[in-house]
Design brief:
The complex is a heterotetramer of chains A (about 210), B (about 675), C (about 325) and D (about 170). Chain B is about 70% helix and about 5% strand. With about 675 residues, chain B is mostly helical. Among the domains of chain B are: about 260 residues, no CATH class; about 30 residues, no CATH class; about 50 residues. Chain C is mostly helical and about 325 residues long. Classes of the chains: A mainly alpha (about 210), B mainly alpha (about 675), C mainly alpha (about 325), D alpha/beta (about 170).
């Protein structure tokens, strides 16, 4: 049972990591939004699994909120922004594609090495997914650093948030519900604020 | 038995050297000296095989010779015998080859000198792996270095020979100094005999242990061509006569490997894992650098030189792995790593000898050494082409030739390492595996480029068009290593069986590796049966050919289809540079290519272009970043030193007491 | 004795089925393009026709030109002999393992490239250069994918990998396996010259990789080369299905088990071929200099696979 | 995803071909039995533009498309005459293209067929008598079937090819 549990969560986690890698490979911004939507859905799925197999009922609620907020509302907002910005498909990232991919591979490997002490103290069956969550966080940070399009950076930030949520889910079966809700509000506000600011940022950063 | 054989070998080389000088007729001098060199190699081969078979070891000591340095002492053990074997299998074909290759030098003093030096070179290389004390080792090492240096600069009309010789001399002597320092440190003031060092090395303080390893890596690395000390290889190999390049690349470079193994595995106790990791990383870096340059290099012999660098890198990957495992106390894997490294040393010696001899035949026959000038040789030099194809396929590490078996074992090694060790390694070794795989793939590219551009399609220059086949003796000489490639490829256990003696003599538990004709690795539960694969390939090829013959359609010859153009010219062929272009773009960060295009336009209008010249090259950033500052520093220091020479005799006299005083103070301070 | 017979039959099965796989992919692509297309037997007709046609030897070529088709066929067949098809009892393991299979495929590629260089045409050289480049850049991915399989199965020999997965199916759940499969499939697309790396149906010499090398071949030689290409595709698809999803493969030599194994491998092949056709309908060909990016993707996947399968084993 | 929903909605648009060739197709010579057996349902075509105005090329470009779908008859275009069984020649043969056309014919392994497409290929059309034109295709290489029209419709071209293969009977004979 535990073996299945850990493997399922681990599969979900690595699916999320792969969806972060999509941003490295594609140059088409809408693909980034799709990747983020899918990733959030997977996150909700992982949350549901933890809630079910780890007997933590309130996580079902959290999963539902994730699904609604990050899987539906936020992507809608992002798509709206995307529609309103100039086409810059030719815009190269600061680091070329091969390098970014190899770097993210390296980051993932490093995450495995870094999180070994963590996995040793945690005794939950989900601990084998912790390195992947850490890798997801590192990779999303790298996205924020290395992309030029502001939307890509926002997506990176949101994926970072997903990574943190995943770490909380796998490491401690999620943080208390109140905190979780607060975080969701922050995310929503953050996205709305960015939506307002994007045009200005485009001018400064894209050049 | 082996003593006698060894004595014969050394006497034969000495006799060859003398005969080359004194024999009245030039042709006779050539024949006799090279024949005796060949005889010496055969004798050395016999000695090596007897030692390896019986896994016996004997020592011989003479206080008289080299008396001031503490006498000569030789010790033949399986490890030394294995490298003696390598020297022999490389030297015999090289000396046969030279019989035909240097015929044009008959009657010149230069010819006699080359033959004599060749014998001296061989003798030196035979002694190095047998030396049992520092004096003998350094003496033989220096004989080897000096004779090879003279051979490199032996051809005056070879362009760049002097510069190449300078690079080589500087590198090899810097290495010599490092070696001296390392041995002195290792000796700890005791007698500089290997047995004493072996006994005392355990008590070496870790700090100086690190220094010793570093110095030794520098010394032997500069001989073996480890990055970044590889710069002399691509310069010296093209300058030297081809049979000498074969000997240098096949045997001399390998003696750097020998030194590393002798000191790190025999004389010194297990080191900290970091050193193993460092050697592994060094090997990977060397292999990648070598193969990337060999893919892009236009000069035939420089392609081969860089591929030697690559293979040295692969050998050091095996060594580093063995060091790691020895440090972690995993004897079986350490033994396996050492076996793989040694097997690849032998395989590379065989096929690289073949390739350099073939390159010599090409340059001899087509009178040009740039790939861009060759082409179509397969029609003018059919036998050389077949032999070269064998060598090239071995270089590309494809079955059923010998390059493949050691490549395969290297893969298995890294997989086994990743399975049986703790996380730290499990993260390093996959990267090493990926690098080795990439090296294998790029080596295949380089091999196809070498053979396809030089031998296939149409000749690109007149000299290539009327190239002539090499004389029979040279082809016969190339036949030996070609046969070696095939036999070692089909029956790798022949060599592996010899290696078990070497490894167990070094005190490592030999995991069961060979049964009959198939290589079986119980460790990773996989096996390789080259003969069966070869049989399968042969059967498939025969069936395919038969099927192709059965078709009833008419067969006719026609001009090559080139989209309806009137005539086909060599200018339509893909050049060597064009062949490497995609990789140059992929690895542009490594090559740092430089392009300069200049248009020659008609005075009337810039739209009438008369000619376009494109100069494409890549920046030698390793030389620029590492060696240019060093050279500048050396210049500066010598400039400062020049200041001392004011010309006033009194000042010069004042130097004497000053120096004396300083020395006394130093001596006082040491006590 | 039986295993040997079985191995030979398996090899023959692959050899015979190969054109049908290609034909099926073509037919499905035609359907997805709204065309009627030719049925899956068309490649057999083409091969029969090409075999019976006359042959033209270019006057600039050498014996390499004649040797190439034979060696390409031989190496592909030898590689096919290593692959478990219907039964997991693998006499092929006596010959060699996955790395040997890799090397055999490279042998074929090398001779194909030499054959492309031999006539001395511009397009032939171009094809050889590109083919070798792609092959070289694919090697690391394959090696790492093999490593991650070997880490879970404890061996690099194909039969052992299959059997281990059959006995401990839990290994299949979890990221390592899926990632390795994905990496392997991408590398396979590059190795066999399918979209998005190379367009098997192109007529534009400048975009060719595989096709450009065989422009000079005609008649029986051409037929051999085309058939070898089909066999390579089929054997790699079979490899993917039996190494990563071995279920259904015969573990005993009873007739029923063998029949089931045959059905299973056919079903898996059909599924993979359908995926291939759908993918080739969906994606466009990459620029040659974006191919390394694709290979970097698959390499990263393989690296993640190796690392995670180390930690989960 | 939208792509595949669209594919499903569109379905197959290939149009059936009448089994008797239109009068535009003229058969110069019967295909011999062996070649007919050989090319029964597998034929590789190399298209040669011997100096046409590219009107015929535009029509030929329709053949592999969904509507006319030559692949259903086992026909496909190839990149080299070495792979080809049939040359599909268009245009009046200009002086510059005469030699390449000849070489292409020689470069095609036997047995082989030639189909001349368009008026120009048979009669040089409006270009007849021009100093730049050598003559119709059959002046340079033997032609098995020709298809009239300036340019001929894709259906006619398809019927011409099939008639040359003897799979449908031609509209006219010489």
């Amino acid at each position: 049972m535990d073996a299945l549990f850990s493997r399922l969560t681990m599969t979900g986690a690595s699916a999320m990591l792969l969806l972060a890698l999509v941003v490295m490979w594609r140059r088409h911004v809408p693909a980034y939004v799709t990747a983020f939507r899918t990733q959030s859905v997977v996150l909700a799925f992982v949350g549901a699994i933890v809630a079910w197999m780890g007997e933590v009922p309130e996580l079902f609620l959290v999963a539902a909120i994730i699904l609604g907020l990050k899987g539906w509302i936020v992507p809608r907002i992002l798509a709206g922004m995307e529609a309103r910005r100039p086409d810059d498909r030719g815009l190269r990232p600061l680091v070329n594609t091969e390098m970014s991919l190899l770097i993210s591979g390296g980051l993932a490997v490093a995450a495995y090495e870094l999180s070994r002490p963590l996995t040793e103290v945690v005794s939950l069956p989900t601990r084998s997914g912790l390195p992947i969550a850490l890798a997801l966080i590192l990779v999303s940070l790298f996205i924020v650093v290395s992309r030029r399009q502001v939307i890509a950076q926002i997506v990176g930030f949101l994926m970072l948030e997903n990574g943190v949520a995943l770490l909380a889910l796998l490491g401690a079966y999620g943080v208390p519900l109140v905190v979780e809700l607060g975080v969701f509000l922050d995310v929503l506000l953050g996205v709305l604020v960015m939506q307002a600011l994007v045009p200005g940022m485009e001018k400064t950063s894209a050049g | 038995m082996s003593e006698a054989a060894l004595a014969t070998a050394l006497t034969a080389c000495a006799a060859g050297a003398v005969l080359a000088m004194v024999w009245p007729s030039g042709a006779g001098a050539r024949r006799l000296s090279l024949a005796s060199a060949c005889a010496g190699c055969s004798a050395a081969l016999v000695a090596a095989i007897t030692v390896l078979q019986g896994s016996l070891s004997w020592t011989w000591r003479s206080e008289a010779l080299l008396q001031p340095l503490g006498g000569v002492s030789l010790r033949v053990d399986p490890l030394g015998a294995f490298f003696l074997l390598i020297v022999a299998v490389t030297g015999a074909p090289a000396s046969l080859y030279a019989l035909g290759y240097l015929r044009h030098l008959d009657g010149q003093v230069r010819g006699r000198a080359v033959h004599a030096l060749f014998n001296v070179f061989l003798a030196g290389m035979c002694v190095v792996p047998l030396a049992d004390n520092v004096a003998t080792f350094l003496f033989a090492w220096e004989v080897m270095a000096l004779s090879s240096y003279l051979l490199v600069v032996s051809d005056p009309e070879q362009e760049g020979a002097a510069a190449a010789g300078l690079w080589y001399a500087v590198m090899t002597h810097a290495g010599f100094l490092a070696l001296l320092a390392a041995f002195v440190l290792l000796g700890q003031g005791g007698p500089l005999e290997f047995p004493a060092m072996r006994a005392g090395a355990a008590t070496l303080p870790p700090a100086s242990q690190g220094v010793v390893v570093l110095l030794l890596l520098a010394a032997f690395g500069s001989k073996a061509g480890l990055v970044p000390l590889h710069v002399w290889l691509p310069r010296a190999h093209p300058a030297a006569p081809s049979h000498v390049s074969a000997l240098m690349s096949g045997a001399m470079v390998k003696l750097g490997v020998y030194g590393t193994i002798r000191v790190l595995f025999d004389l010194m106790p297990p080191l900290s894992p970091w050193w193993g990791g460092a050697v592994l990383a060094l090997g990977v870096a060397t292999a990648l650098t070598g193969v990337l340059y060999s893919v892009a290099e236009p000069h035939l012999k420089r392609v081969l030189a860089y591929s030697t660098v690559e293979n040295i890198g692969l050998i050091f990957v095996g060594l580093g792995f063995a060091l790691l495992m020895r440090a972690y106390g995993n004897g079986v894997l350490a033994a396996m790593g050492l076996v793989v490294a040694l097997l690849h040393t032998l395989n590379h010696a065989v096929f690289k000898t073949l390739l350099f001899l073939a390159a010599g035949a090409v340059i001899h026959g087509a009178r040009t050494s740039s790939l861009e000038g060759l082409g179509g040789l397969i029609k003018r030099m059919p036998h050389t082409a077949v032999l070269c194809l064998v060598g090239v396929l071995a270089l590309a590490a494809v079955p059923p030739l010998n390059g493949f078996t050691s490549e395969w074992l290297t893969f298995q090694l890294l997989v086994a390492g990743a399975r049986y060790t703790e996380p730290a390694l499990a993260i390093v070794l996959p990267l090493a595996l990926a690098a080795v795989a990439l090296v294998a793939g790029l080596a295949a590219v380089s091999a196809v480029r070498l053979f396809g551009i030089a031998f296939l399609a149409l000749p690109r220059t007149d000299s290539a068009r009327d190239a002539h086949e090499a004389p029979a003796i040279m082809r016969a000489a190339m036949l030996l290593p070609a046969a070696g490639c095939i036999v070692l490829g089909l029956i790798p256990t022949l060599a592996v069986a010899q290696l078990t003696a070497v490894v167990s003599d070094l005190g490592l538990p030999m995991g069961q590796l060979d049964t009959g004709f198939a290589l079986v690795l119980p460790l990773v539960g996989s096996q390789l049966w080259p003969i069966a694969i070869a049989a399968l390939l042969g059967a498939g090829a025969v069936v395919a050919a038969a099927v192709a013959q059965t078709s009833r359609g008419p067969v006719r010859t026609d001009t090559t289809w080139n989209c309806g153009r009137i005539a086909q010219s060599p200018r339509q062929e893909y050049t060597a540079a064009a062949f490497a272009e995609p990789l140059k773009r992929v690895f542009t960060g490594f090559y740092r290519p430089t392009h300069e295009v200049s248009l020659d336009v008609h005075p009337v209008s810039p739209y009438f272009v008369r000619g376009i010249t494109l100069r494409a090259d890549f920046a030698p950033w390793m030389e620029q970043t590492l060696y240019t500052p060093l050279i500048r520093a050396a210049r500066w220091v010598s400039g400062q030193a020049g200041r001392l020479q004011t010309g006033s005799i009194h000042l010069y006299l004042a130097f004497l007491p000053g120096a004396l005083l300083v020395l006394l103070l130093i001596a006082r301070w040491i006590r | 004795m039986t295993p040997i017979v079985l191995a030979v039959t398996e090899c023959l099965c692959l050899a015979i089925a190969a054109p049908a796989v290609v034909g099926y992919v073509r037919w499905l692509k035609a359907r997805l393009q709204g065309r009627r297309g030719a049925d899956f037997l068309q490649p057999y007709r083409d091969l029969r026709k090409t075999f019976a046609k006359g042959m033209i030897i270019a006057d600039t070529t050498s014996w390499i030109f004649h040797l190439t088709p034979c060696v390409v066929v031989a190496s592909t067949v030898a590689a096919a002999a290593l692959v478990p098809v219907i039964s997991a009892s693998q006499p092929g393991d006596q010959l060699g393992d996955l790395f040997a299979l890799m090397a055999l495929l490279i042998l074929g590629t090398i001779f194909l490239a030499l054959g492309g260089l031999d006539p001395g045409t511009a397009f032939g050289g171009m094809g050889s250069s590109r083919e070798m480049t792609v092959a070289a850049l694919t090697e690391p991915t394959l090696a790492i994918a093999i490593l991650s399989l070997a880490l879970t199965a404890g061996s690099t020999s194909l039969g052992t990998i299959t059997n281990t997965l059959l006995t401990t199916p839990a290994n299949a759940i979890g990221p390592g396996h899926a990632l390795a499969l994905a990496a392997f499939l991408i590398a396979m697309l590059a190795e066999t010259g399918r979209l998005p790396v190379d367009n098997p149906a192109t007529h534009l010499e400048l975009t060719m990789i595989h096709e450009a090398m065989i422009l000079e071949y005609s008649g029986p030689y051409l037929a051999l080369l085309e058939w070898a290409a089909a066999l390579k595709l089929t054997l790699l698809l079979t490899l993917a299905s039996n190494l990563f999803v071995p279920w259904g493969i015969a573990t005993s030599l009873s007739a029923g088990a063998l029949a089931l194994g045959l059905a299973a491998v056919l079903a898996k092949l059909a599924l993979l071929a359908t995926l291939l056709a759908v993918l080739e309908t969906r994606v466009a060909k990459l620029r040659l200099f974006r191919v390394p990016e694709l290979l970097a993707v698959s390499f990263t996947l393989a690296l993640l696979a190796a690392t995670s399968s180390f930690f989960t084993r | 995803m939208q792509l595949f929903t669209k594919i499903l909605r569109t379905g197959i648009v290939t149009e059936p071909l009448p089994d008797r060739a239109s009068s535009a197709v003229m058969l110069a010579r019967e295909i011999d039995r062996r070649a007919r057996a050989l090319f029964g349902r597998a034929l590789a075509i190399r298209q040669v533009d011997a100096g046409s105005c590219n009107g015929c090329e535009l029509e030929i470009a329709g053949l592999p498309g969904p509507v006319y779908d030559m692949e259903r008859f086992g026909l496909h275009f190839v990149a080299s005459p070495r792979h080809a069984d049939m040359l599909l020649v268009t245009g009046p043969v200009t002086r510059n293209m005469a030699v390449p056309l000849r070489k292409t014919y020689d470069a095609t392994p036997d047995p082989k067929l030639v189909v001349a497409v368009g008026d120009c290929a048979r009669t040089c059309g409006v270009f007849a008598g021009s100093y730049a034109v050598v003559g119709p295709v059959d002046r340079i290489i033997p032609v098995d079937a020709s298809i009239d029209g300036c340019p001929p419709e894709p259906a006619d071209i398809l019927q011409g090819i099939l008639a040359a293969l003897g799979r449908i009977d031609a509209g006219r004979r010489e």
